[in-house]
Amino acid sequence: xxDYIETARRVIRTEIAGLExxxxxxGDSFQRAIEVILSARGRVIVSxxxxxxxxxxxxxxxxxxxxxxxQFVHPAEASHGDLGMVTQGDAALILSNSGETPELADLVAxxxxxxxxxxxxxxxxxxxxxxxxxxxxxxxxxEEACGRGIVPTTSTTMTLALGDALAVALMxxxxxxxxxxxxxxxxxxxxxxxSKVGDLMHSDMPLIGESAPMxxxxxxxxxxxxxxxxxxxxxxALVGIITDGDLRRHMQGLLDYRADEVMTRDPRTxxxxxxxxxxxxxxxDRKITCLFxxxxxxxxxxxxxxxxxxxxxx
Length: 314
Known about the structure:
Shape: elongated
Order of helices and strands: HHEHEHEHEHEHHHHEHEEHHEEHEEH
Structural class: alpha/beta
Strand order of the largest sheet: 2-1-3-4-5
Number of domains: 2
CATH class of the largest domain: Alpha Beta
Strand content: 15-25%
Distance between the termini: 36 Å
């Protein structure tokens, strides 16, 4: 067991060393790569063969999800018709550790023929791919973590990190926010965490006027099923809320009261465009089950803690 753990640590430390060399070696070519991508009117076409192809798919997905339109094109498929996916206005990002991958030849030639900017990533500065490129990103000389120099490990890790660096630099330049991020991640845990209150709230709210008798308040609470009702003034602004606790405090002679005599004034509310995660945190912190979504003093919806749970926020 100890031997396995030591092997794992050696692999990770070897790859860390490669990443440090990569970071130290970044220079003007990285800056030019960013400028090429920013100036492209179309998409970033990312390609690679074998392990580089797997990394290229991930880089394309990361770019696309962070505001830079991108698409993976398999180099072998490109030679059989998919070159039509690569058009003027695009920029190409092609990966090959050796820089001599034969399956890339047609794709590279296509970029040269139609003056499509080519950013290439490889470990050999004198390689065919880097010599053909408009921008050459050279991976530093680093030991593969397998110890024999034959299994793509450190090299693929460096390439993946370089792709992440490009994506994040572009994202920061575009001032890409969590709101933008949600547009491309509506599903899964990320989509849930970035959901807005307005996405989950109910517009059919339990509401009564402040002068309404408590008999009406009890009816609304029972009909709507939230265990609460909001109380509005003559202008429609939310001025209070009646909860189970308010009912218990006024149990004696409850039906003799009006809503404004029982309600809790200035209740906790949230904006419809706030993140649902913030609403959940507020409800958990206050030990409450509902929040009214209010804009300009007027209620626009109600959010129950169960809505957050159904959306996958927990």
